[in-house]
Design a protein that fits this description.
Layout lengths: L1 E6 L2 H11 L6 E6 L9 E2 L7 H10 L4 E4 L2 H5 L2 H7 L4 E2 L3 H8 L1 H11 L6 E4 L2 H11 L3 E5 L8 E4 L2 H13 L10 E5 L4 E10 L3 E9 L2 E3 L3 E4 L4 E4 L6 H21 L5 E11 L2 E8 L7 H4 L7 H9 L14 E9 L15 H5 L4 E5 L2 E3 L5 E3 L3 E9 L2 H12 L7 E2 L6 H5 L1
The chain binds adenosine monophosphate and glycine (GLY).
Adenosine monophosphate binds next to strand 7, strand 8, strand 9 and strand 16.
Length: 424
């Protein structure tokens, strides 16, 4: 099978590394990929948002199977177009992916299917939204309806903050079209967990759990990022809780989508708040998580390509999902300044030393090979230093040993990834 993975982050590096191990993979391409992915796949110089370019690459290279990594491409209907071209695709079409790209759609679907989530109201008028905030009091959460690269959510501790968030989205349009509608919702308290389920549109199977750390600084302080580290499995979700989540949250939502004529093909990622009264939905994503993928796929014993292909070809019912005994933890190395402004182009050394440690893999996110073949930083999140070990505590120790072997003065990381899992 000739396989094309679409995307360029750490998630796509983990996907490529897992797919490349499959005996069914005869040739692996990635569009556009990064310097790390280039060691396992042939990187094609096609921009991730160039849908026509990706379709042309599929034809030029006789691609048999496409795996879509990022959300924006699913919203753009890339999976629909790939399937229209006669090529199986891992990833939902635009209609099923609306569960991620419109928070209002997701909340209405939860309400209709009785899935527990924060109480909410949708607004297309800024004054009405502001008036509502004043009747509610704080804390409350203001969300731009559409995709906003993880920046569209404000957890407001004061009325002023909530009103400012409405103005940013609806008056100043800082998220463009994504903010023409906002959802205002109840604040939920608890620990967050990420829950992943594979679906072929008819059958679905539990995949794995993980927890990530979004805030940039130790102690979960500072502004939110795309994710500064993660571990899998999530100790807070035991087998009984997993079954409860499948029954109360996943099944009604997947059935609800199917009943609307929008069967879901790919991976459904539920962001959950584990509250005192039980699991409640924070958000749904229609794709793998980043950095959660970098800790889930190294744990997978089964053939990843066979599993993803089964989702794309209505044959998940016969697929087995087996796991190694180990847990995994990943620490993100980011460029100093991230998630604010940062410089590109600094040189990174020592990845080979880090990867010489047992169980350690370094997935690349924003990296680029310079003309003189130096490895350089080319983004905010740059490396995902991942370790597999028998416990999360061991994996944490090993991952930080590996981090300390990487020579990159312009980078930084959190020093406490996994603290909740290690304490319990
Ligand atoms: P989202 O993009 O919807 O996942 O939101 C980003 C982050 O905001 C989540 O990971 C939570 O930490 C927080 N958040 C979102 N909605 C809520 C809510 N209703 N209650 C508490 N925290 C929330
Ligand atoms: N880890 C958060 C996300 O992928 O959206």
């Amino acid at each position: 099978m000739k396989v094309l993975v679409v995307g360029s982050g750490g998630r796509e590096h983990a996907l490529c590394a897992a797919i490349a191990q499959s005996p069914q993979c005869t040739k692996l391409y990635c569009a556009p990929g990064n310097a790390g992915i280039a060691d396992t796949a042939e990187c094609l110089p096609v921009k991730v948002d160039d849908k026509q370019g990706i379709l042309a690459a599929c034809r030029a290279h006789n691609i048999d199977f496409v795996v879509v990594g990022p959300d924006a491409q699913l919203e753009q209907g890339l999976a629909d177009d790939v399937r229209e071209a006669g090529i199986p695709c891992f990833g939902p079409g635009r209609a099923a992916a609306e569960i991620e790209w419109s928070k209002g759609f997701m909340k209405d679907l939860c309400a209709r299917t009785d899935v527990p989530t924060a109480a909410y109201k949708r607004f297309t008028d800024a004054d009405a939204a502001k008036a509502y905030i004043k009747t509610q009091g704080v804390p409350l959460v203001v969300k731009a309806d559409g995709l906003a690269a993880g920046k569209g959510v404000t957890v407001a501790q004061t009325v002023e903050e909530a009103v400012a968030a409405v103005e940013d989205a609806m008056v100043d349009h800082i998220f463009g079209k994504s903010g023409t509608e906002v959802v205002i919702e109840e604040f939920m308290e608890g620990q967050e967990a990420s829950f992943f389920v594979l679906s072929d549109g008819k059958t679905h199977k539990f995949f794995a759990t993980a927890q990530d750390h979004k805030p940039v600084f130790d102690g979960d302080k500072g502004p939110n990022t795309g994710g500064m580290g993660a571990y899998s499995p999530a100790p807070i979700i035991d087998d009984a809780m997993r079954d409860r989540i499948m029954h109360e949250i996943i099944e009604p939502v997947l059935n609800g989508l199917r009943d609307m004529g929008r069967p879901f093909t790919g991976v459904l990622y539920a962001g959950l708040m584990m509250t005192k009264t039980g699991p409640r939905v924070v958000e749904f994503n229609a794709r793998f998580g980043d950095p959660e993928t970098q800790v889930m796929l190294p744990r997978l014993k089964s053939d990843a390509l066979a599993l993803l292909y089964a989702c794309a070809t209505d044959s998940l019912d016969t697929a087995a999902i087996e796991w190694r005994d180990e847990a995994a933890l990943t620490v993100i190395l980011a460029t100093k300044g991230y998630p604010g402004e940062y410089k590109k182009g600094s040189v990174i050394r020592g990845i080979d030393k880090a990867e010489a440690l047992p169980g350690v893999t370094v997935f690349h996110a924003g990296t680029r090979r310079a003309d003189n073949s130096d490895l350089t930083a080319n983004g905010g999140r740059v490396l995902c230093v991942t370790a597999l070990a028998l416990t999360i505590k061991e994996a944490q120790k090993r991952a930080y040993e590996a981090v300390d072997l990487i020579d990159w003065p312009e980078g930084f990381c959190r020093r406490d990834i996994g603290w909740r899992a290690v304490e319990t």
